[in-house]
């Protein structure tokens, strides 16, 4: 078996089963280092002062699967000047919207031995803003984070202040985005470490987002485990309970919190090489497909992102191979 530039063969010259297993583990663990050098991954996320042409952006960033922060990419959007909390309150009023509520800010994350999703409430947008502006205090952390194109489905009143797609990215990829999402929440809201099968353009309108990123080549150091899915529910006394979902399969998820990793339980994570970046108001993060990301935000941060489906090409096949090898090594 060829792993990177190391041939792994279970021949008699390799010794016993344990020696073969150890060499296989080392081969897979060396692979991210080799890829980091060969892929010329930077130690920080580079900045572009303006968008490139579709051809240049595809050649320099999409094809090599490298992230960047783009300035001056949506200066013409009315949202940059208009989207204050008072403006949103005036436009949206008391219309009911979907809000994720958790006791600790972690939605869609591992808690104890469960993969726990937030309690989803449909509440008047004005009531949600009362919580964000601290006019009202309720248990939990509140976050408008429903995906599946919630900007279009739940906030159509705001569509005229942004664009339905990013024209140069649509030309770069030859397609329109699958989803356009609106994000607004409290500073305690955290997006746990995960990856998506999308080319993601993340546009911060106000405030700032803090991203921790891992390239796909870090997969051997990022553990996955299977968890029973559950949902938070708030009881009559205001405390949160974890309620199991009925008759569903276990969910594979990353148990590591990169802000406080349990290296005794997951020592391999110490070898991962995270990138940290802050995306400020008026900046756009290009987050390539399959990059792992963990996200925090300033209080009341407002953002819109565009998900373009990735190409399921040779890069995807190579990632699937790396993913399979990473899991297989645990079994030998």
From TrEMBL:
It is an enzyme of class 1 (oxidoreductase). Its cofactor is Fe(2+). Its main location: cytoplasm. Coiled coil: none annotated. It comes from the Eukaryota. It is found in: Cytoplasm; Nucleus. Homodimer; disulfide-linked. Interacts with DRG1 and DRG2. Bifunctional enzyme that acts both as an endopeptidase and 2-oxoglutarate-dependent monooxygenase. Endopeptidase that cleaves histones N-terminal tails at the carboxyl side of methylated arginine or lysine residues, to generate 'tailless nucleosomes', which may trigger transcription elongation. Preferentially recognizes and cleaves monomethylated and dimethylated arginine residues of histones H2, H3 and H4. After initial cleavage, continues to digest histones tails via its aminopeptidase activity. Additionally, may play a role in protein biosynthesis by modifying the translation machinery. This is Bifunctional peptidase and (3S)-lysyl hydroxylase JMJD7. It comes from Alligator sinensis. The gene is JMJD7.
